[in-house]
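Researcher: I'd like a candidate sequence for this fold, 589 residues long. If you have to choose between options at a position, lean toward the conservative one.
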């Protein structure tokens, strides 16, 4: 607990600090050595504990920690945190590679400022004329990320099985998943900050718009506008017909910047896919409720951008820096309850019309955190995470438990998958490569799960009973439910048995991969192309299997107007249609 200071020569106790009542003595020490500066010991008990060498005062930072063996690096006025492989506090902990600084004097007592800018030369009649050029929304459209505000990834409209390539367009770079409505298809080049609009029928380029930062997910098409958030901290609304700016609102409280993966971005970035509901735009901006004054959330008028509700969720006392509780944590039993740390991390918002969710946190329409955990679709690492981390997955349920034990426990209670879509009463998903899942399989499960007790060598555990499950010949990276058909796209399945036998004989990292391992790696990385599969949602019966020479970006497949559209890793956008093409209304010139 670092309470005593000793004379180096004699070992005599020179000073003893009082016991800190908040010291986390129940948790095991982290798997790396503690560090120190001239002012502090940086302990690694639960997160990072700053212990003042002069006073013995302890300040806890359970929301960050270092990587195994190496730990953290205090240097150059920064605290550098490498990526770590830990599932503790998974719904609140800051993950990734970060450099944290002391509190900035110019940010102390910062008052939020949220300017709204409108295109000055666009009068109302011109806006109406722009909207009139668009065909009306159709039930066959896919107007928002994952089709709807629940983020189900499902449409009631069917797509054909006799698919042929209708067109492909090379945009280049990393692409977001697409959206399609009004005869348009929209996707963003993430790293060039560019939103592209294509003719959904022909693939012809219609317009593009360059924003002030990365656009990490597609816009929402509503009210004749394409509305999206951006990593420059602004929310943009463009006229969908021609890409002209209608308005933009700064969701970030100030114009401060930091470097993110080699580029200047706002300290408070916003995800591209904002939530639009009943003429209101809901947004969130920030990186964690524990840093930089917390997460900003609010509402805007869809037609005008006028701000409505504005809230800040900050998990630390501005005066002392101590952690504060934003909401009552999920009631977990036994040791799992100690792993609950109620913070807020950003994500694409979802909603059932009454409740809003950001990961597992529930809000009402006034953006007040609710003391309830209704079942919904979410991922502990966020919808956009494509890392395939073994301690993360999607689930349909109320809550994601923390710690390795908790992450394995949630698998026994709720339907889980690497990627998932939702029907009326069922969920469908691809299970592979995470805690509690031994072999790849595609599953269908009831939203209200049925469980059974399974006997183990020592004791027993619960297990979710699936309505059906099947092996599929691919590693699924994109998934759509179109009426009664599931469409899956990804890389071909790797021969796991052969690769496992090869790896068991490897005793060092210093080796040249054998042909078997090289083939497995090349297949997994998509160097041998991809696969598209269709399954009957009723029982998993295969309906289609065809090779692809392109691969989808994660969650990059949608179904709209009788077609499949796919944003691809190599920068292409591809349209697949049946032999009898659907009737589509193109945008009016």
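Model: Candidate sequence:
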């Amino acid at each position: 607990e670092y309470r005593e200071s000793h004379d180096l020569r004699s070992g005599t106790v020179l000073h003893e600090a009082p016991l800190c009542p908040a010291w986390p003595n129940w948790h095991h020490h982290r798997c790396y050595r503690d560090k120190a500066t001239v002012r502090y010991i940086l302990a690694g008990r639960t997160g990072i504990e700053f212990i003042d060498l002069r006073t013995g005062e302890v300040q806890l930072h359970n929301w960050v920690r270092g990587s195994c063996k190496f730990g953290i690096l205090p240097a150059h006025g920064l605290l550098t945190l490498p990526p770590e492989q830990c599932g503790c506090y998974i719904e609140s902990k800051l993950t990734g590679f970060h450099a944290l600084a002391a509190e900035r004097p110019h940010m102390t007592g910062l008052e939020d400022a949220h300017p709204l800018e409108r295109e000055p030369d666009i009068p109302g009649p011109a806006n109406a004329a722009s909207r009139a050029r668009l065909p009306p929304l159709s039930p066959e459209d896919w107007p928002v990320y994952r089709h709807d505000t629940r983020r189900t990834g499902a449409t009631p409209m069917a797509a054909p099985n006799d698919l042929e390539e209708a067109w492909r367009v090379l945009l280049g770079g990393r692409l977001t998943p697409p959206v399609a409505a009004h005869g348009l298809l929209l996707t963003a080049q993430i790293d060039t900050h560019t939103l592209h609009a294509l003719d959904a029928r022909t693939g012809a380029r219609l317009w593009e718009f360059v924003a002030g930062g990365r656009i990490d997910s597609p816009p929402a098409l509503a009210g004749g506008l394409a509305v999206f958030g951006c990593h420059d901290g602004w929310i943009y609304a463009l006229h969908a017909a021609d890409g002209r700016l209608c308005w933009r609102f700064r969701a970030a409280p100030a114009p401060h910047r930091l470097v993110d993966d080699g580029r200047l971005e706002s300290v408070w970035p916003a995800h591209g896919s904002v939530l639009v509901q009943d003429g209101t735009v809901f947004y969130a901006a920030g990186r964690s409720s524990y840093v930089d004054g917390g997460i900003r959330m609010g509402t805007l008028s869809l037609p005008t951008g006028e701000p409505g509700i504005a809230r800040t969720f900050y998990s630390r006392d501005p005066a002392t820096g101590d952690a504060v509780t934003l909401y009552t944590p999920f009631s977990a039993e036994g040791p799992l309850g100690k792993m609950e740390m109620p913070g807020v991390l950003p994500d694409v918002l979802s909603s059932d019309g009454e409740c809003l969710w950001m990961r597992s946190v529930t809000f009402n329409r006034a953006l007040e955190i609710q003391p309830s955990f209704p079942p919904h679709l979410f991922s502990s690492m966020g919808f956009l995470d494509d890392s395939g981390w073994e301690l993360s997955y999607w689930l349909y349920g109320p809550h994601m438990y923390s710690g390795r034990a908790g992450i394995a426990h949630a698998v026994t209670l709720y339907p889980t998958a690497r990627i998932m879509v939702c029907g009326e009463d069922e969920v469908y998903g691809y299970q592979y490569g995470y805690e509690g899942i031994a072999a790849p399989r595609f599953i269908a499960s009831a939203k209200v799960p049925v469980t059974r007790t399974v006997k183990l060598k020592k004791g027993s555990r619960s297990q979710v009973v699936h309505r059906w499950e099947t092996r599929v010949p691919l590693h699924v990276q994109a998934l759509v439910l179109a009426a009664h058909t599931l469409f899956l796209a990804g890389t071909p399945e790797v021969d796991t048995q052969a690769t496992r036998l090869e790896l068991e004989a490897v005793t060092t990292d210093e080796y040249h991969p054998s042909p078997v391992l090289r083939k497995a790696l090349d297949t997994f990385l998509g160097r041998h192309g991809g696969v598209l599969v269709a399954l009957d949602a009723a029982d998993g019966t295969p309906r289609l299997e065809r090779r692809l020479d392109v691969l989808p970006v994660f969650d990059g497949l949608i179904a709209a107007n009788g077609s499949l559209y796919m944003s691809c890793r190599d920068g292409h956008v591809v349209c697949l249609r049946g032999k009898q093409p659907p009737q589509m209304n193109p945008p009016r010139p």
